[in-house]
C-alpha cells in the first residue's frame, strides 16, 4: 500500500507537469526511474494512466479520474501531517510562495530577513511569477497578489498598504512626444507592455478619476517580463511605463523620469497573502502570515 501511494504521488507529479523531465527534476529522481515507476503502477492497476508522445505526456481518462479523486485526498493527508507540527515547541517545515516581483522586493524579502532567524526550522521557497497561479494545482502553500486578484474561496490577509501606479518616461522621450493628458491619449504613444504568463496576454493599464474607471490596451515597441525591465526601458527613453509608484518616485525626484496622468492614478487595494482553508492550522504557515500581516 505504501508503495502504491508513493507511486501515485509520482504519477500526480508527471500528470501536473505533463513532462517526465520536469516531474523528475521536481521529485529529485531520474527520468528513467520515474518512467519505470509509472509503468509499474500501470501494470499493477491494469490500466494505462498516461498517453506518451515524443514531446509530452498527458493523463488518459483513467489518469484524469485518479488525478481528480485521489490527489485532493493525498493533499489533505499531507496537510494533516503538517498540522502535527503544532505539537512541536517551534513551527517547522518548508513553505512555497508564489508572488509578483514587486511584492517580493518590497514586502517579502524585508519580512523574511526578520522572520527566518527567529524560526530556524522553517525554510521558504519564493517563486516570482506574474501569472495568476492556481496555488492548489501548483502545490504552493501561499500566494501573494493584489487584493482584487485573490479568489473568493481563499483566506486572504493584507500584508501591505494601498498601492498607486505611475506613468513615467525619460525626459528624452517627452522631448520627442507630447505628454498625454488623458488615459485615452496613450493610444498615440509608444508604451512599454508587460507580458503576463497566464494565457500569454499583455497587462491592461487601469486608471480611475472621480469614480470613473478607464482601461487601456496600450501598444509599443517593447514588451517586458517584469516591472524592473519596464522601468529600465523607460529610463532609456524607449516609451512610457506603468509601474508601482514607489519604484518610479526615486527616479522622478532625481529628474531621470517624468510623471504624467498622476490624477488618474488613484490608490487601490494592496498586496494580500492568501492560502486554502485546509492549510489554516499549519503552524509554520500561521507564523509567517502573522509576521507579514499589515497593521498600518
From TrEMBL:
One of its GO terms (biological process) is DNA-templated transcription. The keyword Cytoplasm does not apply. InterPro entries: LysR-type_TF_proteobact-type (IPR058163), LysR_HTH_N (IPR000847), LysR_subst-bd (IPR005119), WH-like_DNA-bd_sf (IPR036388), WH_DNA-bd_sf (IPR036390). This is LysR family transcriptional regulator. It comes from the Bacteria. Residues 1-60 form the HTH lysR-type domain. One of its GO terms (molecular function) is DNA-binding transcription factor activity. Belongs to the LysR transcriptional regulatory family. Keywords: DNA-binding, Transcription, Transcription regulation. The keyword Transcription applies. Gene3D superfamilies: 3.40.190.290, Winged helix-like DNA-binding domain superfamily/Winged helix DNA-binding domain.
Amino acid at each position: 500500500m505504501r508503495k502504491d501511494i508513493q507511486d501515485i504521488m509520482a504519477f500526480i507529479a508527471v500528470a501536473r507537469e505533463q513532462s517526465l523531465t520536469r516531474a523528475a527534476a521536481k521529485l529529485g529522481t531520474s527520468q528513467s526511474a520515474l518512467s519505470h515507476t509509472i509503468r509499474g503502477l500501470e501494470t499493477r492497476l491494469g490500466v494505462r494512466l498516461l498517453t506518451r508522445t515524443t514531446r509530452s505526456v498527458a493523463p488518459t481518462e483513467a489518469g484524469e479520474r485518479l488525478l481528480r479523486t485521489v490527489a485532493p485526498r493525498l493533499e489533505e493527508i499531507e496537510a494533516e501531517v503538517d498540522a502535527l507540527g503544532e505539537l512541536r515547541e517551534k513551527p517547522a517545515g518548508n513553505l512555497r510562495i508564489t508572488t509578483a516581483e514587486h511584492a517580493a522586493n518590497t514586502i517579502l524579502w524585508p519580512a523574511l530577513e526578520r522572520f527566518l532567524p527567529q524560526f530556524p526550522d522553517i525554510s521558504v521557497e519564493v517563486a516570482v511569477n506574474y501569472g495568476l497561479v492556481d496555488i492548489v494545482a501548483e502545490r504552493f502553500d501561499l500566494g501573494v497578489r493584489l487584493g482584487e486578484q485573490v479568489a473568493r474561496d481563499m483566506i486572504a490577509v493584507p500584508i501591505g498598504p494601498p498601492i498607486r501606479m505611475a506613468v513615467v518616461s525619460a525626459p528624452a522621450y517627452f522631448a520627442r512626444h507630447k505628454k498625454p493628458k488623458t488615459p485615452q491619449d496613450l493610444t498615440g504613444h509608444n508604451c512599454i507592455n508587460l507580458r503576463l504568463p497566464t494565457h500569454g496576454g499583455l497587462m491592461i493599464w487601469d486608471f480611475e478619476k472621480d469614480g470613473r474607471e478607464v482601461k487601456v490596451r496600450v501598444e509599443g515597441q517593447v514588451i517586458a517580463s517584469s516591472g524592473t525591465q519596464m522601468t529600465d526601458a523607460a529610463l532609456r527613453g524607449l516609451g512610457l511605463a506603468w509601474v508601482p509608484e514607489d519604484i518610479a518616485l526615486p527616479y522622478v525626484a532625481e529628474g531621470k523620469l517624468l510623471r504624467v496622468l498622476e490624477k488618474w492614478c488613484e490608490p487601490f487595494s494592496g498586496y494580500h497573502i492568501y492560502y486554502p482553508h485546509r492549510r489554516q492550522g499549519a503552524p509554520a504557515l500561521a507564523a509567517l502570515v502573522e509576521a507579514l500581516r499589515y497593521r498600518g
